[in-house]
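Mods, move this if it's the wrong board.
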Amino acid sequence: MMIARSHSLSKLKPLISISLISQSFKSKPPSPHLPPNPNPQFQTPSKLQPLTFFKPFSSSSSSQPLPPLSLSRDGNYDEAPAAPVCPGCGVHMQDSDPKTPGFFLKPSKKDPRSYKLGPHLEPVALESEFNEALKKGFVIEPEDLSLVSKLDGLGLESKPEKPVVCARCHSLRHYGRVKDPTVENLLPDFDFYHTVGRKLALSSGTRQVVLMVVDAADFDGSFPRKVAKLVSDTIDENAAAWKQGKAGNVPRVVLVVTKIDLLPNSLGPTRLEHWVRSRAREGGAEKITSVHLVSAVRDWGLRNLVDDVASLAGPRGNVWAIGAQNAGKSTLINAIGKHGGGKITHLTEAPVPGTTLGIVRVEGVLPGKTKLFDTPGLLNPHQITTRLTREEQSLVNISKELKPRTYRIKDGYSVHIAGLMRLDIEESSVDSVYVTAWASPYLPLHMGKTENASEMVEKHFGHQLQPPIGENRVKELGQWVRKEFHISGNSWDSSSVDIAAAGLGWFAVGLKGEAVLSVWTYDGIDVVLRNSLLPNRSFNFEVSGFTVSKIVSKADKASNKSQRQGEKKKKQNDHQKDSVTC
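Not the wrong board. Structure tokens:
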């Protein structure tokens, strides 16, 4: 160590290298599984155990790979599933083929006392090469773990291990996107009626409670009409059998409206619940036990929901969370787990439709032996989001509180919501009609004459009116079709009716008289006429022309800036060429 003090840093480098190599040549006890080396003096470094400073995050070499599985989306409904199930999405897990759904890597076990804490390690260099400890002539040996006991004295405890999830869930949680989109196509369609429907239709057995989860900002687009009809028919059949003295297990339906924090504060809960019950009856849910308005983000209404569901399910019942894709089922269950019994669930949450792939059994969230099941989101092909790319979905997805954008227009004028929907005022008995657009704030609007509508499609769809993003996407989305509506109203101060497109938003129309309206969107998208959900309009009116969204505005500025810089460079190059010629 005295030598180290008298030498410069450049001369110490080879000494350190020689020291490390000499340590690697130290004699070690022979392995009981290998024969002793008769000539230890001829032992080469290649036969030695290399120095290992860390162990990579990878599958354990000792663990046997899981057998290949037939693709299934039944999840872990059974008490003991045949194979491990991802706790995040419910898909059967396997570690043999990364190109097959359910692939995962099993992390190696780590010492909680030293992993990421590194109390026995010293920084390599606070200056250029070595730390002050080495300059003073002493080094903290890696074998010295005396500082670990000090951590225990400070009360530091190791965190509980997180469950292992599939690579798809890991990518969604950390990057907000699917790791490999091609793997998604290998998954079979989720057969709700075979997997869940037949369990709900049983006339005997465990009590069944159906949590019908609906998105407040897209009620009609996310309302599961087929499930509502199935459950209503089952209730009628089993109730009739029960009255005749036969076995009749009548399911209880709890309608849960999520994401109410996206609606303006001006909407009262009484009016909202009345509107929800009316729309649910029209959608086929005739037998609703209770309605709950909740926000998993703000913890609104969760306590009442847990108490109600626990009383309906009893000590051993089954509770099924059912709803459309991206309606917020997994987020709701995670919030219930934290708010109810303090049980931490690990369901994957992401603003991506179809996050849950199979049935996920969640126990310990509700009291007693009540079991809660998260089910894959039901695909509604009539929602416009099913045709959009991930980038386009991020623009359409409503993630902030809705704000009204109101136009005061007359006959012969139109309003566009991006390149996805258009409203025309064809005829009206009054001079003015108030049209309020309720949609994502990232979607641009346009108001202009109807006679210029075809020109808008040709010149601005895919550019200033996004989504769709790009001219090619306009053709890929399908044919632009028209639907006609005859409406009437009795007030200019509030909206009377809504014209809603599934997965996008809606136009709220206020007038004192009658009018004939036309709505244009892509073929196959559900468009419904309903009573107004949000009657209040904005007091500040939008002007004609483009109302540019934040995203498109930034993109235009960046595009214009790069274009100006390109033109400036071109002029400089031309000027230099002219000067050289002269």
